[in-house]
Amino acid sequence: MDAEPDRWPLRVGETLSSHDWFPFYGHKFLSSSFLRRAVKQDRREDVGTALILWAEAMREDPAGTLPTNDIDLADIARFATVEEWLAVKENVLHGWVPVLVEDGRSGGTIERLGHSALIEEIVQDMYKRKRGRDAARDAGRHALKKHKIRKKMTEMGVEAHIIENDRAILALAEHFEHSELYITPDNVRAAMAEVLEYTGQVTPISSVKRN
Predict the structure, then answer these.
(1) pLDDT number for residue 109
(2) Angle in degrees, 0-180, between the axes of helices 185-195 and 166-179, rounded to the nearest 10
(3) Residue ranges of the domains in the chain?
């Protein structure tokens, strides 16, 4: 009985499509069995095709994988016909093996091709960095929203105890984040009524309305 393919570290939807570069581990490449075999067999053109596949894999979903279908692979590798692709397939896919990819939408897995020796470590590191940058960008955007809300509330003459209430401001910021409304006096006033149940009375808000 054949062993089940390894699972790829990234799931469907986890991509690096916005990146136009990726690190290249030169020492690993120069000492790889793929390069030695290509040179000894006088198939240096296979090196170029392999590099195209590695670069294209970074743009695939999930990052670092390739499809298993020869029609798709021929297209990705820039061959005019599937027959031309099949003539080099065995050599240029050296190191690529079937992997299972989790699909959160269906709850199942799909099979793709992955390269554990040269690609897997790269995409894991790059995706981790991407998530860190995304989180920092989201935090910065959220902080700016809270600042704008506080500034607008101050201009509107809202009581200081409301402006200084971190939970209230956080709830308002999340409201504007999800509604995509501009932070205007009218929208802030409406959000305070909807989210905080603010009536305009000078009374402390002991708790923020929870959804």
Answers:
(1) 93
(2) 110
(3) 26-118, 136-195
